[in-house]
# Entry
Amino acid sequence: MGNFYLTLKERGFIDQATDPEEMVDLFARQTVKAYIGFDPTAISLHIGSLVPIMALAHLQRHGHVPLALVGGGTALIGDPSGKKEMRPVLTYAEVAGNAEGLQKQLSRYMVLDGTRGLLLNNLDWLKPLNYIEFLRDIGRHFSVNRMLAAEAVKQRLETGLSFIEFNYQLLQAYDFLQLYEHQGCLLQMGGSDQWGNIVAGLELIRRVKGGKVYGLTFPLMVTSTGEKMGKTARGAVWLDGERTSPYDYYQFWINTSDEDVGRFLPLFTFLPLEEIKDLTREGGADLRRAKEVLAFEATRITHGEAEAEKAREAARQLFYGRGKDLEGLPTTVIARERFQAPGLEAYLLLVETGLCGTRGEARRLITQGGVTIQERRVPTFDLPIGERDFQDGQILIRVGKKKHHRVLLG
# Structure
């Protein structure tokens, strides 16, 4: 299977790393436990977390042991990294509910059976902490001057950094110490904005235990146009199928720009690099094929084979006229009587299907000519849609060029 560190390097995962040569040797000679933390600030992770998740999955595929750490404790504090202002303070109940959602989600990408991989929650060791003892035993190893020099802290000092957020680095470093002591964890990985926190953990372990551990970060994921990866006009692209349907997830990937597809295939699929080179060697139709492979593989990893097949078939049917059916499309079932005379006005239909968040937004879209129903442009926002508009019990709505939705009679 090769060396885990070298695999990450070859596939474009690594931004910074401590002692790269030592890490290559470490992964060659022993089984390594490595961790990444995921704070449960929402019920689902989004595509911004996918590079760290894929890194843990690669770790397991190379015979090492991933530790997926849900930050049930640190989420109560809020990580200031990459944020212009303080995160909303979550309740214990909100964090617990989000943590449960993340635990189920992470288990889809790797085996977390307690042996081949572990799922942990830092609330288990952070909640019982005695504050005075923590300051004496852990806080004394941290230099305020050094903490103030951290990039994430410097950026926030201009807009204001709360004392509770200032403590976040101590808690994350303490996580690494706990995992080193009780799990034998030797590596922490994270996004590029976590470099300061990771180095703080390495230093804490050296001071408290005299141990040697390692850290590496992933590059900030931006598209070729400089936009943050996973952000769309509709907001974040979620890994939860209830928040972002498998079809919309598939569409996000198939709409990858020509410039990005060669970079995304090694990061977001497990395809061999030689196969990826073959897929991206030529442009034109071959590159379109590469995008379809990227979309299918990324959707399969997150939502399973069956949902990926449905999404691909629906996309082929809509865009190429050669798929089997439209089952994979986002679908809303509406009672038949809603379409009886005089019918349901078009702008209300857009709101009911979730294609628009408000009636005003729906009216504007239709007025601007951006909506079609059954491939016919909707001329007025109050156009009544009735049973006569359905074919085989369904109608297809398109908003803009790429957003599709199916409505079925209930």
Notes: The chain has 18 helices and 15 strands. The mean pLDDT is 86. The longest strand covers residues 403-409.
